[in-house]
Specification:
There is one protein chain. This protein is mostly helical. The protein has one domain (7-59): 434 Repressor (Amino-terminal Domain) (Orthogonal Bundle), CATH 1.10.260. It is 49% helix and 0% strand. It is built from four helices and no strands. The chain has helices at residues 7-15, 20-27, 31-39, 46-55. The longest helix is centred in the last third of the chain and has 10 residues, at 46-55. The chain is globular, with a radius of gyration of 11 Å. The termini are far apart. 15% of the residues are buried. GO terms for molecular function: DNA binding. It comes from Rhizoctonia solani. Residues 12-60 form the HTH cro/C1-type domain. This is HTH cro/C1-type domain-containing protein. Pfam families: HTH_3 (PF01381).
Amino acid sequence: MSEHACSHLVDAMNKKGWDYNKVATELGLSEDHIKDIFTGKTKPTPLESNAILGALKISEQPPHDGKHATTGKS
């Protein structure tokens, strides 16, 4: 498995029995974009971040550090 920027997201995804494709389908995004977000290659927009947290039923906010930053775009 590749290195993940946020193992918390991967753990939540695995707990639901989902893969990147399922997350992407639920959010209407490409699988490659989801992989890039989960591996830290791309920072999500605040909207994408909130959608991912909601889809994976994560209620706590991510830490405020570089790994968990979002873009300034919505």
